[in-house]
Design a protein that fits this description.
Strand order of the largest sheet: 9-10-16-15-12-17
Number of helices: 18
Largest sheet: 6 strands, antiparallel, barrel
Strand content: 15-25%
Helix content: 25-40%
Shape: globular
Length: 718
Amino acid sequence: MIDKLVIVESPAKANTIKKFLGGNSKVVASMGHIRDLPKSKLGVDIEHDFEPEYINIRGKASLINSLKKDAKEAKCVYLATDPDREGEAIAWHLAYILGLDPKTVSRVTFNEITKTAVQKGISNPRTIDLNLTDAQQARRVLDRIVGYKISPVLWRKVQKGLSAGRVQSVAVRLIVEREEEIENFKPEEYWNITLVASDFATNTKFDCKFIGKSGKKIELHKKEEVDKIIQDLNGAKYIVKEVKKGEKKRTPAPPFTTSTMQQEASRKLSFAIKKTMSVAQSLYEGVKLPGHGLTGLITYMRTDSTRISDEARAAAKEVVTAKYGEEYYENRYYKTKSEAQDAHEGIRPAHIEIDPTSIKDSLTLDQYKLYRLIYNRFIASQMSNAIYDTLTVNIDGNDYNFRANGQTLKFKGFMALYVEDEDDSKEEEFTKIPPLKENEEVKKEDLKSKQSFTEPPPRYTEASLVKTLEEKGIGRPSTYAPTITTILTRRYIEKDKKQLFPTELGRSVNKYLIDNFPDIIDVTFTAKIEEQFDKVAEGTESWKQIMREFYGPFSETLKKAEADSESVQVEAEVSDVPCDKCGRMMVIKYGRFGKFLACPGYPECKNAKPIVETVDVPCPVCGGKVQVRKTKAKKNYYICENNKGVDQGCSYISWNAPKPGEVFDPSSVKVVSNTETKQTKKSTEKKASTKKASSKKTTSKETKAKASGKTKTTKSNK
């Protein structure tokens, strides 16, 4: 008989929690959801008040049987799935599968996986929060209806294999509209005049920006205006009219929420949003540390709260005062936005005494980078302000006004540890100003003018898109990563050096949806729906009432779109590569393995060729072009265009991009020879004869791949 059966979502989390529970306890993982709407059909009974038709997820039958067996043998079952709406829904489905009453079941949550938090959670179980499960159901059902009803229309009117979604389509719209802003942008000319001055006492040079004349601000848009001012200033004396001294304080950023963590990891670590969440999940669930075993390192990573516990605040005080001194500590409380879900703390280290440097050897490089970012951000959030001495000097020459701004860091405060990346560029506007007094004359060293043009708004990055989605109330922290992944996978957008831009397909789909489903991909509508989901979670609104109000107008819009016979033609992107068979400019197409070039003259001309990405550095062995290729696991490797396979042509192949002047050591990469391939084939076939047929198939595929001449590196060299 099992005293306590604790069901969590992931095996890693289960292993971490096991060591905190004494007695005859068992911790098992549900591996995420065990029930969901079917993939093969809508799965929502619209005729019977939008009742969802859940089924057991295919492939989880043995897991479900195992969970049922454990539950029967347990005195008490604790459902310890993640502490958010999705986790609450998983707990609700587990209760159904296991035959437990959701009104009496023991539901426990942990904001952090520490011994104290786990034991406290087990000691204070609650019932399943049906308001949270209803909120999750509302989103799941509404998004299923939108996706499964609109997507078939897209297949018929635009192209097969497309999809639409309440959040993903709005995200695409934002990216398309930003691209249109950039394309339609008309740069405007403007000029700046800079007086390079120095004082007579020390000859220290400093820059003064032109601001206007006789106290009135003037903007310069033409060279003629600039030339006249410079001419008027010929022979002018430059007199200090005003010296303002002051003090400026900068406050630290609050602890991370999910979205701010995603943004900062993108800016500082160049992490994709999906990668950030994956690494954060591993830190939350537990990492094996010497002397500690499996240890959860951060609090729950899906939150839009900046609140932190009193215990964490006290621990931060100890760290700050011990490392920096009392003057660097400040007890801070951060306000959470009114629309935020404040069930959890902000993201912080679960064990504040565990410094990132002390466990670096136990973490992967990505884990270390993200843990250090989270740790430093949290500690800095409990530190003193940074203090600057500021100096503003106004200088006049022949009634023309110039201004110099300077500042000096007097006290680092939190900046001794952490500075938010967005703020780093703000220091550039300041110049070092010598001691000056009012009515003092300064020397003119130079008078410079510079022509500039206004620039279009920047393309979205993953970080700036997440920030915009959050500001506009579109989606929730847990939806940002899958949303961006989906629209990249569907090829509605592409990413180039962090920048997101729409494809022709994305533009076409966006135009069709705006023309036919304007309300569904409207930013205001999407944000309003999120607010209604929040009200369901609070218990002040019925989720089925939301569905009733939504579906009536939606079904009418759907009927009109289906009745419209007009189709959308997606223009293929034309490349700069001519077809070597017929001379037409080839177009970019997409297949199972990504982009390729195809002749637009198909079926008359069936020519096609791969798109080859190269690097700027020549091959270190033969001087040829180095191509970028991908393994089946989507990992980049670099190979010379003259490398024709096993034992043929140039030997250059590497996991790392070549560097200028690099000397390549062929022995560092072992290429599988033809002889080795044959021996491997015979040995593998002999072993496979005693195994299952599926194992034979896998081995056969691997052997064929080697025999086909594709270059492989051994596992030891990866």
